[in-house]
Amino acid sequence: MKTITLSAFADEYSPEFDVQLSMLCEHGFTHIEPRFLLGKNVAALTEAEAREVKEKLAMAGIRVSAIGSPLGKIKLSDDFAAHLDLTRRVCETANILGTKNVRMFSFYPADGKMIADCRDEVLDKLSQMLDIASEAGVTLCHENEAEIYGESPEACLDLLTALPKLRCVFDMGNFVLGGYNPMDAYKLLRDHIEYFHIKDALYAGAIVPPGRGEAQIGEIIKAFAAEKDVIVTLEPHLETFDGLNSLVGRAFENPYKFESKEIAFVTAIHDLKELIK
């Protein structure tokens, strides 16, 4: 088996960046995928703030695996010129923090439209973002998620085939929540996968600790790691996540409940390590 490197969205443990870094060090992590830190989204960091983050990372001995950006998580009708400016800013932050990978999405439809009917516009806008990233030496990595163009495995493959510079962040939990078989999705997309987001889920709609659901995390990661080194970013979403019900379009009763987000996150760490050891 090749090397499996652990990273995490440590903001699910704490909003305080120093606490995030301490937790990662305590549990043997070498990498982070920053999303919320210094009281703001990573995409909103100024150059000075990004350099402050870089110094804190160096002191902790933690590297950045990817930028957990919100790029592409807007409606097609939103101000795209401003979004291109944001793309440039995020790429600059990626370079300061020493990573080539930026997580992103593939747009929501304008009101009253179906995203599947907007392929040409999606491809055009993603292409412009990819050009900016390429000039900066950055790789945009698309995450599958509900209600965007790239929700289904087939739609993700369409994007990745049409846009060769685009890579895949494979989120098996999101595929389960969308009703898609994660192993079938993996077989379809594996040649395009740059890295993985780790959350587990039940088809009924609940997000559960890694290995307790139907996302086939252990099988998929071990299959990929049999051939290539891989980074897996823990994003467990185990505490109550109010936005998720609307995201997946149905209510659910989660069989796993935790007293705090800290306990939830540490549980997910232990379960993930058991899955991939």
Produce a short descriptive summary.
With 277 residues, the protein is an alpha/beta fold.
Strand content: 15-25%
Level-1 CATH class name:
Alpha Beta
- What structural category arises from helix and sheet content? alpha/beta
Cα distance spanning the termini: 10 Å
Radius of gyration: 18 Å
**SSE sequence, one letter per element:** EHEEEHEHEHEHEHHEEEHEHH
- Tally of structural domains: 1
Q: Could you tell me the number of beta strands?
A: 12
Mean pLDDT, rounded to whole units? 95
Strand order of the largest sheet: 1-12-9-8-7-6
In the CATH classification, which architecture applies? Alpha-Beta Barrel
Number of helices: 10
| Low confidence ranges | 241-247
Basic shape: globular
Helical proportion, percent range: 40-55%
Largest sheet: 6 strands, parallel
Q: Which fold name fills CATH's third level, the topology?
A: TIM Barrel
Query: Which homologous superfamily in CATH is the superfamily?
Result: Divalent-metal-dependent TIM barrel enzymes
What can you tell me about this protein's structure?
This protein is α/β, with parallel strands linked by helices. The longest helix has 18 residues, at 80-97. Mean pLDDT is 95; it is low at 241-247. The protein has one domain (4-276): TIM Barrel (Alpha-Beta Barrel). β6, α4 (119-135) and β7 (139-143) form a beta-alpha-beta unit. The chain contains 10 helices and 12 strands. It is globular, with a radius of gyration of 18 Å. The relative contact order is 0.13.
